[in-house]
Specification:
about 475 residues, alpha/beta, 5-stranded mixed sheet, two-stranded antiparallel ribbon, 15 helices, about 50% helix
Length: about 475
Amino acid sequence: MEQKVIDISESLATLILELAEMRKTIDLQHAEICSLNRNVGKLLKENKALKKRLEKYEKPSKDSGNSSTPPSKEPLKSEVERRTKSLREKTGRPVGGQKGHEGTTRKTVDTPDVIENVSSNYCKECGRDLSDIEGELDHVTQEVDLPPVMPVYRERRFYKKVCTCGCCNRDYSPRKRGGNQITFGKNIRAIATYLSVVQCIPYERLQSLFSDMFHLSISQGTLVNIVRDMMEKSKPAIALIERLLKESPVVGLDESGCYTNGKLNWSWIAQTTYLTLVFRGAGRGAKVLEDRFGDALKSMTAVTDRHSAYFAIDFLANQVCLAHLLRNLEYLNDIDKKQTWAKEVQALLREAIHERNQRPADIIPKQSWLERLDELLKKNLDTLRKEFNELKRGILKCRDHIFNFLENPAIPSDNNASERGIRKLKVKQKISGCFRSETGADAFHALHSITDTAWKNDQSPLNALLALI
């Protein structure tokens, strides 16, 4: 009996030791599991970050054809494809002028400025002198050329006349004290402004152009002063354009970044079919337009993109640019070529645009088009990539502003005219880098407004600048 008790004690001791070893093992395994869990969390986080970094390589790149990315910022491959591949669908017709198309050619003038007789002086076979033989007219051609450009110095003499009553009469402004006796005429001033604003030639190259082509030495400082003086003379015309815009029922609006003296400003455009007003603002918010146009905004229908600032303004109505939406939908097609939702929305928008083009003067009720759009927006897109739901939410926000152009023939379906009007500033900025002063930026904006308005009215931009002087 005593032996058995001893065996039980030994067994218990052994069990206690084994339990201690098991507990130790369990603690080690628990610590290892905790460490693995922490590592798994880190790996999941790292995996998520790596997936996000790889998205830009897996997703199609954004360019000017499938997004609002400007051509200057799109990838080189996309730019090459855009410049070498037409987006138009093939019609099957032969390349070049179509049958029945009336061609145009330059016609000869009845009274040429110079007549030049061309004939042989010597026989090419025997070498005889042919100057005494009267030639027979073979054929006539005309050549258009420019005369050698030389500056014309015009001396202007001002005479004052003293009346018998003692009054001194001058039909001219008195000469400014300290002013130069030699000034530049209106043609030089208009051409300098035209080349700077319309053709976007920098002042250094403009100085070289005047020297090489016109044999005229003009400093860059003088060119700057000419453009600034033209800005001052354009103020009455700018005020008229602004007043006419405030009275316009439909106005296209857009904005774009503008670097001035190293700081980011914003170039704004307000335009119609016949008017263009471009101006510089410190910000991109609604306050810029409210300060410029005031209560006139309440009577305008604004044609814009989906920038939130435009929907914070109390416009009479809004029209969202369908060209922007079509590009965004094209990007979704590039992401997932098997889905049909983006293609169906695209087809609906294009059908609405085609309907307006077929019936340009009719009032087309938009309710049926909204109902068709609502059916597409009700579809569940959770199985697709997140970009689909993001665009769907964006369309829902502006749903009431998509088909307004159908009920009002004066409203365009896109805002491309505003983008074309403001593109000149991007070209200027791309050439020169930025505007070096606020005055220079404001001068370019004002004079571009004048020349673009003239162009829209089938007038010469150069003649419009001449009219300011």
